[in-house]
Design goal:
Number of strands: 9
CATH class of the largest domain: Alpha Beta
Structural class: alpha/beta
Largest sheet: 6 strands, mixed
Distance between the termini: 88 Å
Strand content: 15-25%
Number of helices: 8
Strand order of the largest sheet: 2-3-4-1-5-6
Number of domains: 2
């Protein structure tokens, strides 16, 4: 038997003092959210990244369970939260249409009835029996959106998925959203494209820090959001530090201004162009 003093062998065994760790403050991605959406209404949700927009749609789509509160919805819900849900790269486009459609809640008979329309919408008929791993990124997202866009639902949740493909395909997407709107589909629509929000929505909610800070007509709420953007400190090139690189000229500062000469952080898509006004540039005297 070893009769040695074990404390001598392990002098830190009895050191139990640890610095006090302060419990982290709870973070509420959403708090005190309350709103109603009328049947057939298209409601836009805007706000900066991290405002809680996507979390709200995930809760409405029953992907995430709310900590508190309740949601009351009448009718079946479909969500376009991610283009290409369920796609497998080794499967053909045809096989992925059936796989993705079934994961989104469509029955096989329904997919069969809509298959030709889905393929025509995506514009990939020549490649439908090719594995999607060989598709271009544009073909991939077009087919994914085409499947999701042909869901039949009373309530449709759309999260920033219209910015896919080229300009012609985006026009098709807007036309499809307009068609669903005319059919009476209720929609919640998240986008950073303020021109699309203004064009498609009946009402807009502005979110900030997990709460709704403004609600009303698209034009009014978009103006509020643009003022928030303008009031934020515009990024300056000089704040990024100096980068050493060869060249005859170096831009030292750039700001953007609106038509009234006010300094702004940016403008909405489709709005009047800002003037880019460099405050100064330096050219080394030895340059030619």
């Amino acid at each position: 038997m070893d009769t040695r003093d074990t404390t001598a062998l392990a002098p830190l065994r009895w050191v139990g003092l640890r610095p006090a760790v302060k419990a982290p403050e709870p973070f509420w991605a959403l708090k005190d959210i309350s709103f109603d959406v009328a049947p057939g209404e298209v409601v836009g949700i805007i706000g900066h990244n991290g405002a809680g927009k996507s979390t709200l749609l995930k809760i409405l789509a029953r992907i995430t369970r709310p900590t508190l509160g309740e949601i009351r919805m009448r009718g079946n819900v479909a969500a376009l939260l991610e283009v290409g849900t369920g796609f497998h790269p080794e499967l053909t486009g045809r096989e992925n249409v059936y796989l993705s459609g079934s994961l989104l809640g469509m029955r096989r008979r329904e997919i069969q009835a809509k298959f030709d329309r889905i393929v025509e919408f995506a514009g990939v008929s020549e490649f439908i029996d090719m594995p999607v791993k060989w598709y271009s990124s544009g073909m991939y997202v077009r087919l994914g959106f085409a499947v999701a866009a042909h869901l039949e639902a009373d309530i449709l949740l759309v999260d920033e998925v219209l910015a896919v493909g080229d300009a012609a395909f985006q026009l098709q997407c807007y036309e499809r959203i307009g068609e669903l709107r005319r059919q009476g589909t209720t929609m919640l629509f998240i986008s950073h494209d303020l021109a699309s929000i203004d064009r498609l929505c009946d009402r807009v909610l502005l979110m900030k820090n997990g709460a709704i800070t403004a609600a009303g007509s698209p034009r009014d709420v978009i103006r509020v959001y643009e003022r928030l953007i303008d009031d934020s400190s515009p990024g300056r090139l000089a704040d990024a530090g100096h980068v050493s690189s060869p060249g005859a000229a170096r831009i030292v500062d750039v700001t953007f201004r609106d038509d009234n000469g006010r300094e702004v952080a940016g403008t909405s898509t489709g709005g009047r162009a800002c003037r880019c006004r460099p405050h100064g540039a330096t050219i080394p005297p030895h340059s030619k």
